[in-house]
Amino acid sequence: MKPRPPSAPSSSTAPARLRPHLARLTSFLIVFAVGYSLGLLSSSTRPSPKPSQTVIRPHAAHFTAGSTAVPASNSTGAAAAAAGSYPRSPPDDLFRFREECGEPIPSDAVLPALLEKLFDGESPYASFPPPHTAALLHPAAARPRGWGSTGAVFAELIESVRPDTIVELGAFLGASALHMAAVAKNLSLSPAILCIDDFRGWPGFRDRFRRDVPPPRHGDALLLPQFMANVAVAGADAAARVLPLPFSTASALTALCEWGVYADLIEVDAGHDFHSAWADINLAWAVLRPGGVMFGHDYFTSADDRGVRRAVTLFAKVKGLTVRPHGQHWVLSTKPHGHDDGR
Question: Do you know which Pfam families this protein is assigned to (predicted)?
């Protein structure tokens, strides 16, 4: 008679030291099995494409007339063909700026209209500066520090255009504005000079202009009161003609367009990256009177990947204009006549 094989050991025969862990181990295995099963069920069975096989399918409007969209099922060769034809032309939104503005108001009504709309009809220089503000500012300078602010291009353009209204984008401490006011006065001209700037500066500007700007106060850069102090010390004539518009360039130019405020001469010297310069140039073009001239600074600077130069060059190409370098500045050809200039 064969001996009976030994039966499998039961849990009661397990070593005593493992018994307290059996329930915990069993629970862990059950949770792991359930989680693994759910992961398999929720995962996609379609393999992800390799980076070299990814097909970019831009909107059809971004292609040129001779190009076609590529189906997702096409091979890598088709994807390469799509990449070769995209984008030959930028999206339409890149060129979608307002071109028609409000009915132009007479040039001699520009300053009164803006004072009424923005300052309740009172000059911002009235009783300026109050004592508590004056104590925070640097000594005012009729010729504040700037860069490229007294170039020959200013006198040349003011003499040739003989503007009734000048718009400046990017005023900082007022160097360019006060120089233009002095040049115009020498030519027996008295244009309104509208200085558009948010007067907040830019990150790090104090490192370069620490001796020219007041220290910040409660988060306020104090550039607007310093600008106004510089204008005020230049004389009553300057204060009567140089008006700060303390807003972003986009919002201020949009408002001027709606109100029918046009300029004969526009200087663009605000943001130096491509997108800022591109927007400023396009928005300012809408408020430039036919026969007027737009110019600006930093055409040759390498900062921001030559953003200003790229924006100016593209704009001139789109509008069929010519760009004339003038020292550190750029000058666009005269805006063509098309309608009443509102003088």
Answer: Methyltransf_24
